[in-house]
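Dear support,

We are seeing what looks like truncated structure output for some complexes. This example has two components. We would appreciate it if you could run it in full and send us the complete token output so we can diff it against ours.
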Amino acid sequence: MLLAQIHLTLPAWVFDAVDTTRAYAGDGEKVALAIGLSRLNVEHASGGPFGAAVFGPDDRIVAVGVNRVLPHACSLAHAETMAYMLAQQRTQRARLNEDAAGARVGPYTLATSAQPCCQCYGATVWAGIDRLLIGARAEDVEALTEFDEGPLPADWVGELARRGIEVVRDIRRDDACEVLRAYGQRGGARY
Amino acid sequence: MLLAQIHLTLPAWVFDAVDTTRAYAGDGEKVALAIGLSRLNVEHASGGPFGAAVFGPDDRIVAVGVNRVLPHACSLAHAETMAYMLAQQRTQRARLNEDAAGARVGPYTLATSAQPCCQCYGATVWAGIDRLLIGARAEDVEALTEFDEGPLPADWVGELARRGIEVVRDIRRDDACEVLRAYGQRGGARY
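Here is the complete output from our reference environment:
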């Protein structure tokens, strides 16, 4: 038997939780949305404590993502990767900030409740974003939960900067940590 | 508008190209299959020049993958990640070598026509494989095509070894390079 189809979904509650008509001005509002998604994902038991969102040049949502690893038995279904895939599907661009003729469009921003793991770090290199906004640090994730963030290049921020991706950290870090802490204290799954 | 569904597929030709009933004994046969898939993917114009396959403890195919980035407008749809997602879906395990009770099963092996890029490297950390068999090197990919492999940890092989993943390189390297060279000379797309 050979499988040839992959089908990944966001939980149905996202349709009630996300307003694609409003603008999320500023970095804090964008990361606050990602943290809100991480909290709702835990409350709805629809995946791990991580949320992310891609924003377009008008500060509106292009796509959102939450961790869906265990519901889909899929180690690729992290919050950031779900958001990237859905944003690319919506724009029909394999690099969000590059059109079919190779011209730059955007800028596009990913806001994530916690620092991308090694997999989402690599995905970020190819996704076509211009800015990466992060709530909790990797050390927060590893201290407050059983999750492992995996190996990164020593100068991971610089490697992104060299590819035109600006990284901003510690945005609403305490709020992000609160969700992780609550999840960790409940003994949530570790992937 | 909020999208919430991702649907990724392998091209229909894989059903004729892959025999899931036979055993692929030895590392060379496994990587030869991955290289064959990379070649067919170029010939059928169904994606970039990369192929991969996950093998179970009986040396039989669990799943295969080819690059589907441009057909699906999805930067996540690399050969290795497609193979991981399909193998996990077939086994219904988010880590291939770990059952629902956390006990080790397997071993599982990924064979890939070329060294995983930064994204597939990170995905490999979480996918639950025990062995990683590689055809062409990253420097081959970058010399022979326009593809960029992205930033990796300095000791990327050692980081995998510390997580129980054995890496074997340069398997059928010349055959793998031949596919990359032909693709590069045709001026194929770079992601």
